[in-house]
Amino acid sequence: MSAGAVLPHRPVPGGGTGLVSQLVLAVICAGYATGAALGWGSPEVADVMGDFGLSAAATAASVSCFLYARGGAGEGESRFRPAWLLFSFSSAMAASGNGVWGWYQVVLEHPVPSPSMADLFFLLFAPPAIVGLLVLAKRPVTRAGWVCLALDSWLIGGSLLTLSWSLALAHTAHFEGESVARAALALAYPLLDIVLVSMVLALHFRRSSANRSAINTAIAALALTVLCDALYTSPLLRAHYRSGQLLDAGWFAASLLLAYAPWGARRLAPGPAVPPPPPPRRPGALPASRPIAGSLGALTPYLAAAVCTLGILYNVIEGRRVDRVVVFTGCTVVLALVVRQGIMLVDNIALTHELAQKENHFRSLVQGSSDVIMIAAPTGILRYVSPAAAGVYGRDAEDLVGSELASLIHPEDLGRVVHEVRRFLAAPPLEEPAGRIECRFRSGTGEWLNVESTINRHQGGLILNSRDVTERVRLQAQLQHNAEHDPLTDLPNRALFTERVRQALSGRRASDPGTAVLFIDLDGFKQVNDTIGHQAGDELLIQAARRLQDSVRAGDTAARLGGDEFAALILGDGSRDRAARQRQVHEIADRLRLTLSQPYQIDGNEVRVAASIGVAFAERDVSARELMRNADLAMYRAKSGGKNRVEMYAPQMQAEVVRKTELAARLRTALHEGEFALLHQPVVNLTTGRVAAVAAQARWRSAQGILFTPAEFLRVADDSERTAELGRWLLEEAVEQAAERGRAGHDTPVAVRLPARRLLDKSMPLGSVEALLTRHGLPSGALVIELSDSDPRISFDELERRLVSLRRLGVRIALDGFGSGYAAINALRRLPIDVLKLDRGLVEGVVESARLHKITSGLLRIACDLGMQSVADGVDVPEQVLALRAMGCTHGQGMAFSGPLDEYRLRRALVRGTFPVPGGAALPVLSGRALPSVRVNHSNSETPVPPT
């Protein structure tokens, strides 16, 4: 890896505009210089251009600096506004001086008096400029700094004074015939220029870094002004000077340069100055030399002493007597140099001591840090490695120094690391001072360590602060694995499986219709948990997951969605034959079903479960969630269709689910909207045709006028709370209507079908039935409760206690659906049953099937031997009446007598009292206890109740 990538050069906004401004400025100055060199064509024009032209240029500089100070300076340059205001005032003084000079020379056509107002204005030019330079300078932060600044200024000014006094000023000061005012004025100009030059030179090496281009341009303008003043004060030039000559072109250019400084230079370099990174150098190359400005700044005191020496030598060589001013000035310059060197020596000693302390601190931090600090050259060669490398990487720091960084990084990570390093080096340092990379690093043992490094720029190369994060990466990977996998089976969980399905539908296989999702449910798993325990159930799930994982292909995904539900993602093979692909996936699903249905060996026991599998294929524009939903629907269709089978998804399954959902939603409000009605079906004596009881049945007439039977609406009422509410309504409505019929003279018992689990529900406590009978005034013997299910999870002990308590209240108990369900014999053995109600499935085939005839006959004999009443449900044809009566069944209900009746028709039937019986009166083949007539008895003694 080479860190010395080519750095992109950022274009400077406004660069084109700045170049045009510079060209215009150069053209104007060149035009003025050309006119001055040619004499402007006439003396009159030369006077105008030499006086008012300079005044106009100085006025432009004054206005430009003033406008910039008032509104053009940015937030970062607000502290420099006084400097530009001072430059504006200084230029205004120059403009006024040139204006007064022109007034005398051009307008009045008189010689300019000496001294005059023009001299006053010219003398006021230098002081504001000097103060403005002080404002622009980088201010010292210590007293020693201020002292050094004053000494540097005197060194420069004193040396220039020595030289200029030796060359010209001494002659000016002793010029005979001149007045004191004229001599002072003649000395004031060069002395102020010397001070201005001293400040320009002293502050040139101390200028602020903010808006450096504008400050440099302003200093250049002032330096050009001082140079022209020095030439003007020279006796050789001043004796022959006239307005409009070439010397005026220097003053003119200096004023325009000062006017351009704040605006043009600012456009060239907007915003904070960002020093470009140093260019990369070849290995072994010497470091770049120090900036020339810094060297000149250090040599300034010695140059000043040299200038003083030259001034004194000039007097000696010319044979002149050494002037006392020269001697005094030279001595003060030397003394200032000595004092300055003493201050610098003390300062250097302090800096050296501080540097040694910081170096010791740095060495202690680097060598004692647990992080590895490395310095890489622009070529990628390691130049320094801290001692921590031995503990982190297992390699000595000396062995790493001189090696290439690229050889230590994992090949798979190298391209990404090079890209990140190049992007970091190309970014501006102020926007991105540091970067961060993470890669694998070769250790001394040859293994790859996960390393996180913070990178910084260093002389075109890099400083890397690295630490070993292998354990953190492993922990993150483990946490990620745990978040995406089932903790019991270690298969992908629902979240990861959904993501895999989404990838399969959005990747290169998006157009492959052969991709399929299988939803798998283990039939009978709950019985395993209930019978042999949850630990055995967990072991069964682990074995099932292992079988599933071994059965799918390498590119497919097997997952556990939760509980006993699994899933598999079968990726398509690119085949366009949809029918063949469906057959292939169906074979895979059937093979999975057979595999999962094989016996499981758990704790020495053989456990069997089956598998119901739903299959859904990917379709165009089907999302992952919709595809999984389709497979889920197909799986539930497989379970409802008999279990242990494979079902393919069909679009009508979704329509059925929508209908069931809508029906369930309407059912939730049906009770509150009064849409349920109660019908009663007569229970008839098969011998006499007399109505012995009525069986209450609920019907739901929806707002759309559709009448739903219990089989239809109970199938969607899977909400246990809604089912409980419906059961409470049925019981209370049946008791209320039976009480009203009793008061009307129809003392007919009513039978209400309730699930056994509802009797044990806390929502129906024991006292609620007694309170219901008391509230409506119904004798307890007039209520028969039919147990309508045989859930094996119900505790028979608790159910037996509840039924015994109900019988104490006079409530009779009937066992509904006798002949179906494995718990019927156990119920007969343990529960206090009064009536056996034959299952409809036995009654339907009792005439055609000899086997069912024998079974039914045997069950009726059992009921007779136990002294129980018997009722046949679903007696729809006369032949069934004759057959059942011949076998000893005493009562029946069905379409052979009457269907469910509303209250009006039921009362008419009760008034009539009997239904015609096929074959007339007949004696039962099996003798049993006679059915006594019902009498209303309000005592607590048991009252004989006809069967339901």
TrEMBL record:
Keyword DNA repair applies: no
Domain GGDEF: 513-651
TM regions (residue ranges): 19-40, 52-71, 83-104, 116-137, 144-168, 180-202, 214-232, 292-313, 325-346
UniProt keyword annotations, A-Z: Membrane, Transmembrane, Transmembrane helix
Gene3D superfamilies for the chain: 3.30.70.270, EAL domain, PAS domain
Tagged with keyword rRNA-binding: no
SUPFAM superfamilies attached to this UniProt entry: EAL domain-like (SSF141868), Nucleotide cyclase (SSF55073), PYP-like sensor domain (PAS domain) (SSF55785)
Annotated ranges, domain EAL: 660-914
Pfam families: EAL, GGDEF, PAS_4
Alphabetical list of NCBIfam families matching this protein: GGDEF, sensory_box
Name of the protein described by the UniProt record: Bifunctional diguanylate cyclase/phosphodiesterase
Organism: Streptomyces noboritoensis
